[in-house]
């Protein structure tokens, strides 16, 4: 009888402990006003650290070719073009940390390609993978692996990260998205292993 009572008390204590454990909740990305990032809203991606350029824009890098690359504006006062974030699998449209996202510029260009971001293959001259446009919107899987990015927490801010999980059998090389200044002074977004690009999101 004592053994049964002791087991019952232990079970009640264990149940009570589980009830007190906090639920695991996905962390929502917030804009500069403290509001939730949403897939149906346009935002400027801006640098947290000032003094090294402004928002993000499109560039042909001076060679007149398409698709256009994603670069940081030279002027700190420039916001660049706004973007939208489109999750691979979200029904409520709220953008969460570590969620697979298409990032798309809200801009019209002379190129026939889309303004959806994608990570290119390794560049022969630099050995780096640069962020360009011309990606496919939606259709998560192996064929669109280069089109998916994440927003992660970095210190008390955010960073962009390439590590898609839209393909169970794929093993992408996961890297931070940072700024690479090329020989012509273009501040190009690239997959880097050193200092990531600290960003914030300002609603248009």
Automatic annotation (TrEMBL):
InterPro entries cross-referenced by the UniProt entry: Kunitz_inhibitor_STI-like_sf (IPR011065), Prot_inh_Kunz-lg (IPR002160)
Signal peptide range: 1-19
Keyword line: Disulfide bond, Signal
CDD domains according to UniProt: beta-trefoil_STI_VvMLP-like
Domain of life: Eukaryota
One Pfam assignment: Kunitz_legume
Gene Ontology MF term list: endopeptidase inhibitor activity
SUPFAM superfamilies associated with the record: STI-like
Protein family per UniProt: Belongs to the protease inhibitor I3 (leguminous Kunitz-type inhibitor) family.
Name recorded for this polypeptide: Uncharacterized protein
């Amino acid at each position: 009888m004592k053994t049964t009572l002791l087991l019952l008390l232990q079970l009640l204590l264990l149940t009570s402990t589980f009830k007190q454990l906090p639920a695991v909740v996905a962390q929502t990305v917030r804009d500069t006003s403290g509001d939730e990032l949403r897939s149906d809203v346009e935002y400027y991606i801006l640098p947290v650290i000032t003094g090294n350029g402004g928002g993000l824009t499109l560039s042909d890098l001076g060679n007149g070719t398409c698709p256009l690359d994603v670069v940081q504006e030279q002027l700190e006062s420039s916001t660049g073009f706004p973007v939208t974030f489109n999750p691979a699998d979200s029904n409520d449209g709220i953008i969460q940390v570590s969620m697979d996202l298409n990032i798309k510029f809200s801009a019209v260009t002379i190129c026939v390609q889309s303004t959806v971001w994608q990570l290119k293959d390794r560049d022969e001259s630099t050995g780096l993978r640069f962020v360009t446009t011309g990606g496919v919107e939606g259709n998560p899987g192996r064929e669109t692996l280069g089109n998916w990015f994440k927003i992660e927490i970095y210190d008390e801010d955010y960073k962009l990260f390439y590590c898609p999980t839209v393909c169970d059998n794929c093993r992408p090389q996961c890297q931070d998205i940072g700024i690479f200044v090329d020989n012509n002074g273009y501040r190009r977004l690239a997959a880097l292993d050193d200092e990531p690009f600290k960003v914030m999101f300002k609603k248009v």
